[in-house]
Write a structure and sequence with these properties.
By secondary structure, the chain is of the alpha/beta class. An 8-stranded mixed sheet has the order 6-5-4-7-1-8-11-10, sandwiched between helices. A 3-stranded antiparallel sheet has the order 3-2-9, with no helix packed on it. It is globular and about 40 Å long. The mean pLDDT is about 95. The structure holds NADP nicotinamide-adenine-dinucleotide phosphate. The site of NADP nicotinamide-adenine-dinucleotide phosphate has 28 residues, from strand 1, strand 2, strand 3, strand 4 and helix 2.
Length: about 160
C-alpha cells in the first residue's frame, strides 16, 4: 500500500482546536492542493465536517461509525479493516488528511509523511502522534514565512 499522511503541525504537535485548524497559510494551502489533487483523500468525520466544501478532483473517503448522510460522491467506510482493504484495492497513493484520530490509526501503515512543521505553538485540543524520527529519512522541501511565522514543508520516507 502507498499511504501518505499529510498534516500541518505546531512545535508541540498541535493540529487543531474546536474542530478547526489553528494556522492557515496561503502557501501551505497551495502545497496541500498540489500534494492531494488527483488522489484519494481519507479523513475522519470531524475533518470532513470542517471542510468548507468538497475538494475538487479528489475522491473523498470518510471513516465513520454512525450512519451518516453525506454527498453521494463521498465513500463512507465504517472500519479500519474495510478501509485498508479499499486502499489496497485502489493500488495508488492515498492521502491521509486527518484528523488526529485518523493520523494515530494510520501511523503504523504510512510509508510517507508530508508535514508542514510550523515554528509556533498554540493552545490545541488535538495533536499529531509522536513518531520515532530515526525510522524515517527526512528531507526539507522548502522553508517559508508568512505573517511573521516560519514553516517548513518536510518529507519523511519510512526507512
Ligand atoms: N493540522 C492539520 O493538518 C489538520 C488536518 C486535519 C484535521 N485537523 C484538525 O483535527 C481535528 C479533527 O480531528 P479529530 O480527531 O477530532 O477527528 P477526525 O479524526 O477528523 O474524525 C473522528 C471521527 O472519525 C470517525 N472514525 C475515526 N476512526 C474510526 C474507525 N476506526 N472506524 C469508524 N469511524 C472512525 C469517528 O466518527 P463517528 O463519530 O461517526 O464514528 C470519529 O468520531 C480538527 O480540529 C481539525 O481541524 C488538522
Amino acid at each position: 500500500m502507498n499511504i501518505t499522511i499529510i498534516a500541518a503541525v505546531g512545535k508541540n504537535n498541535e493540529l487543531g482546536k474546536n474542530n478547526d485548524l489553528i494556522w492557515r497559510f496561503k502557501e501551505d494551502m497551495k502545497f496541500f492542493k498540489e500534494s492531494t489533487t488527483g488522489k484519494p483523500i481519507v479523513m475522519g468525520l470531524n475533518t470532513f465536517y470542517s471542510l468548507p466544501k468538497l475538494l475538487p478532483n479528489r475522491k473523498h473517503i470518510v471513516l465513520s461509525n454512525v450512519p451518516v448522510s453525506l454527498p453521494e460522491e463521498v465513500t463512507v467506510v465504517n472500519s479500519m479493516e474495510k478501509l485498508l482493504r479499499l486502499i489496497h484495492s485502489l493500488d495508488q497513493e492515498v492521502m491521509i488528511i486527518g484528523g488526529a484520530s485518523i493520523y494515530h490509526q494510520f501511523m503504523p501503515f504510512a510509508n510517507k509523511l508530508l508535514l508542514t512543521e510550523i515554528d509556533a505553538s498554540s493552545e490545541a485540543d488535538v495533536y499529531f502522534p509522536a513518531f520515532e524520527k530515526s525510522e524515517w529519512e527526512k528531507k526539507i522541501l522548502s522553508v517559508q514565512e508568512e505573517n511573521g511565522i516560519t514553516f517548513e514543508h518536510v518529507e519523511y520516507m519510512k526507512k
